[in-house]
Amino acid sequence: MSKFLLLVSIAAVLILGIFTGCQPEQQKVTVLGVWGGSELDVFNKIIKAFQDKTGITVEFESTRDINTVMVSRLQAGNPPDIAILPQLSLLVDMAKQKKLQDLSTLLDMNELKKSYSQSWIDLGSVNGKFYGLFFKTAIKGLVYYDPEVFKKEGLSVPKTWDELMALSHKLVAEGKTPWAIGIESGSATGWPATDWIENIFVRLYGAQKYRDWYEGKLAWTSDEVKKAWQLFGDIATNNKMVYGGRNGVLSTSFQNAGDPVFSSPPKAYMLQQASFMAGMLKDHFPDLKPITQLNFFILPPINPQYSAVEIGGDVLAAFKSTPEVKSFLTYLASADAQAYFAKTGATMPNKNVPQSAYETEIDKRFAKILTSANTIVFDASDMMPSEVNSQFWSATVSYIQDPTKLDELLGKLENLRKTAYK
């Protein structure tokens, strides 16, 4: 090759490299989450609306084992831009490891506070910094019932725990079964029972002691924790209180637990579950009319000075600070984005999501409870270390099988607490 041709070739490579390097990288946001099925279908609609508006591409990766995937991605130095976390404890762990972005640097906090109550921001904060933006939630501690049945039998919705128990004992005395409970859930069997205990605990002792409990600062063998279990046991371990007795509680899946309440004639009168149960009940009983035949009340207060709404849900965390991440997070926090999920019966934390976005009167009531609550607490078991969480689930199963073992079960959980929080 002549010197002239060689110089031309080198020049061509250099010019190509310069122009290639000047090409802007594609605007993109990567998201990791557990969603699939109908949830992912809705999220894809949100992504499309965002992409049409901004031109920014969003790539979603779904996994059922987000804890393991997140740990391996972080160790490899390849985290997603955003993760959608179903457990707040994972957010807390990563925040303490300084893996997350402070969202107050990515979002306009003045605008956010017009849509989100301070309780949501506090729930998503770790050591005074804001790391978690709540996106889609479910209210827990709701009691479903049939108003027509209550009216026909002269029953009133209880306003206190004492009234709730008086109603339960009245039904038992009449030879009826007040409660339907099912805690079977595959490898997660027991979680519906932990919801009961958590809702009782926060009504007994308030949000701060509730936080002390899930943060490992309160012994499982304490009088406070034991009292919450015992009040739950007054219902769940009493064969006359629950449909099918203790064995029925253990063998019935949570999805089917409400069927006895809405069968005709009713075989039970009340079901405690989360807001997502309304959709399941409507699927099982499509002819039920919301409000008149399918309604709910919140588990009533025990100690009148404490009032809190327990939730479970999905929280957004950011690992990178880019204009694209800022733009997508801002959109996800908006009422426009959250209205998509509101139409599915989910309860959204943005209080500016219009009531018209919720399709049934029950869903509208859920939204009003959530956006007007003064104190919101997250599911305590989901805030505990995973090994404590799983043993809490299994301990409730053992307790229902044999309530005389309560001290032994709490002792084992206490021994685990002493090592799990180090």
Number of helices: 18
User: Could you tell me the radius of gyration in angstroms?
Assistant: 25 Å
* Overall number of domains: 2
**Structure class:** alpha/beta
Name of the CATH architecture of the largest domain:
3-Layer(aba) Sandwich
Task: Categorize the overall geometry.
Answer: globular
Which CATH class of the largest domain is shown? Alpha Beta
Count all strands and give the number.
12
N- and C-termini, Cα separation: 70 Å
CATH topology of the largest domain: D-Maltodextrin-Binding Protein, domain 2
Mean pLDDT, rounded to whole units? 92
Beta-strand level of the residues, as a percent range? 5-15%
List keywords for this structure.
422 residues, globular, 2 domains, 12 strands, D-Maltodextrin-Binding Protein, domain 2, alpha/beta, four-stranded mixed β-sheet
Characterize the structure shown.
This protein has 422 residues and is of the alpha/beta class. It has two domains: 28-138 and 312-372, Periplasmic binding protein-like II (D-Maltodextrin-Binding Protein, domain 2); 142-309 and 381-420, D-Maltodextrin-Binding Protein, domain 2. Helices cover 48% and strands 13% of the residues. The chain has helices spanning 3-22, 37-54, 66-75, 88-96, 109-112, 118-123, 147-152, 161-173, 191-214, 223-236, 245-251, 259-262, 277-284, 323-332, 335-342, 361-372, 386-401, 406-420, and strands at residues 28-33, 57-62, 82-85, 125-126, 129-130, 133-139, 142-145, 179-180, 270-273, 295-298, 309-318, 376-378. Strands 1, 2, 3, 6, 11 and 12 form a six-stranded mixed β-sheet that branches. A four-stranded mixed β-sheet has the order 8-9-7-10. Helix 2 (37-54) links the parallel strand 1 (28-33) and strand 2. Helix 2 (37-54) packs antiparallel against helix 15 (335-342), helix 9 (191-214) crosses helix 17 (386-401) and helix 17 (386-401) packs antiparallel against helix 18 (406-420). The protein is globular and about 65 Å long. The protein starts with a helix and ends with a helix. Mean pLDDT is 92; it is low at 1-24.
